[in-house]
């Protein structure tokens, strides 16, 4: 009975659909990390707005059948993958960054939050305040045109308005902070898709040789 069961499990795994991702490979390790991050944020943290007109249908389907909705999202995502003619625009807003408290204030005023925050900071460096200072700094290393996404495009607000493009929302990114081995990183972001639509999170990413992936998160707000 073991062989038929093994064959069944192998076929089931092969048939299981997943969101398509490809690790960035630009030759610039930091840019690759940002590209992989942005691809995950678009696919998993923008409320499916990047799917365009199909987002509303997917939402309605999710109310009736969540399993069917997950399967349909995979189909829609993978169909959109690489089809630049159908991309919506993610606006990169560098006007300001939401501020994290300094380490002492965090410990004194928000001990419960500090208990979740400090292990993330410590995974990068024992100098917590230095990590916080970087996370409180705008991502200024690359212009929007430098990023290469698989299911969306990035532009500054002025250009997106001039082109009259469909907008996913506005994204504010901190600088990404890496550990010494360059296999873990932290980044703080805020995504806004309306007055009552958006989120703020601190994300931990890891690279285990197959690109950067979000492995942990700490939510600061969900609108």
UniProtKB/TrEMBL annotation:
Per its record, how is this protein called by name?
Lipoprotein
Q: What organism is listed for this UniProt entry?
A: Chitinophaga chungangae
């Amino acid at each position: 009975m073991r062989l038929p069961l093994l064959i069944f499990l192998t076929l089931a795994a092969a048939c299981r659909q997943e969101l398509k991702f490809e690790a960035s490979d630009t030759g610039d390790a930091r840019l690759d990390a940002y590209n992989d991050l942005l691809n995950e944020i678009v696919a998993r943290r923008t409320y499916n707005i990047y799917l365009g007109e199909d987002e509303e249908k997917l939402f309605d389907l999710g109310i009736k059948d969540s399993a069917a909705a997950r399967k349909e999202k995979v189909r829609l995502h993978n169909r959109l993958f690489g089809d630049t003619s159908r991309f919506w625009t993610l606006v990169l807003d560098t006007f300001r960054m939401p501020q994290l408290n300094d380490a002492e204030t965090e410990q004194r005023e928000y001990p419960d939050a500090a208990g979740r925050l400090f292990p993330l900071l410590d995974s990068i460096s024992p100098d917590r305040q230095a990590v916080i200072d970087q996370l409180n700094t705008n991502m200024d290393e690359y212009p929007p045109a430098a990023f290469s996404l698989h299911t969306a495009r990035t532009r500054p607000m002025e250009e997106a308005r001039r082109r009259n493009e469909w907008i996913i929302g506005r994204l504010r990114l901190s600088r990404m902070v890496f550990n010494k081995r360059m296999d873990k990183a932290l980044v703080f972001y805020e995504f806004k898709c309306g007055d009552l639509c958006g989120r703020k999170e601190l994300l931990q990413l890891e690279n285990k040789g197959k690109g950067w992936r979000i492995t942990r998160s700490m939510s600061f707000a969900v609108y």
